[in-house]
Specification:
By secondary structure, this protein is of the alpha/beta class. It has helices at about 30-40, 55-70, 90-100, 115-125, 140-145, 185-200, 205-220, 230-250, 270-280, 285-305, 310-325, 335-340, 375-385, and strands at about 1-5, 5-15, 20-25, 45-50, 75-80, 110-115, 135-140, 150-155, 160-165, 170-175, 355-360, 360-365. The chain has two domains: about 1-180, Rossmann fold (3-Layer(aba) Sandwich); about 185-385, Up-down Bundle (Dehydroquinate synthase-like, alpha domain), CATH 1.20.1090. It is built from 13 helices and twelve strands. Helix 6 (about 185-200) runs parallel beside helix 10 (about 285-305), helix 6 packs antiparallel against helix 11 and helix 7 packs antiparallel against helix 8 (about 230-250).
Length: about 375
Amino acid sequence: MVEVGGVRRVAVRLGAGAAYEIEVGAGTLSALGAAARGAVGPGAARAALVSNRRVFELYGRRAEGSLRASGFAVTRWLMGDGERFKTWRTAERALSFLSASRLERSDAVVALGGGVVGDLAGFAAALYLRGVAFVQAPTTLLAQIDSSVGGKTGVNTVEGKNLVGAFHQPRAVVVDTETLRTLPRRELTAGWCEAIKQGAAGDRRLFAQTVEFLGRERSEGWRSVGRREDELSRLVAAQCAFKARVVAGDEREDVNRTDARSRRILNFGHTVGHALEAVTVYRRFRHGEAVGWGMLAAAEISVRLGLLDETGLESLRGAVRLAGRLPRAADLDAETILRALRSDKKSVGGHVQWVLLEGLGRARIVDGREVPARVIRKSLRAALGAG
């Protein structure tokens, strides 16, 4: 990580010498055009901006102005807001927009918004003309530290979450931490759950740094994020750097890898989290909120299998509490969740691959055949009923 003029730059290094840069800082959205131009080169004439209405009302004019100032002809399309719009139908509409915008192979798609916007826009960019350049401008905490980094794109189907998608790496990621000031509290909670996940799964120091920050923010009030902008930017950049290291070592999530640096460790909390989203038709939980419950369920399983001690479980519980209040989950039936788990897209050989904990900062990938159904049921009831 390199800091220049208050902006932290994190390099994501991929195979065959490919790389892109994440810029993190307050006010970086004003430099979106320059970052996009530097990433796609002088030959790009058009930038197709994908956002949603709420985000565009807050930041769209600034983004468009920056892109135009760097010589792009800008078109825009606003999709629906929320996970339920991350569908084939929406992707088809996005592809029609790109076609109507007369995008060429040298041009770029720019995503301005949270994880749903980024996933959908990136998926359309991967398909259109067999792949056009893609630039991420994430405006939610979850998107800034997680979904905008690593090139995963996709849509949900009736069978499950993200079952259709593509790896399509962005050319640049521009993270403006000032956008976090306008986030609803639930969006912050969702993002902090993902931040806790990354530390818990692979970096104990990052976990402690995140918990320490959240403890101070909780005591001073959620809206104090603007009062310690540099500290917030430092933490967001550290989260991005962690994700970048994991992606660099396992860009396409090799299903044969089970080591502690596999990209699959980032799925900690996602197995149950995706099931919770599916059984509530993507209407009760933000993605990060579902991951919050999913982490607690995975930690309960870890304890019951003798991998994690009670101290580690309680530390994780405390961290999730600091992230914020999660929507209720105690009313959800364990058998229904178990059925939804069978559609997890990360199954291998027909079996769910659980990401469990051997300790904070040490994930372990466990084949589903080693996790009895009775352990899952008890863990679900213990975790989801814990409130």
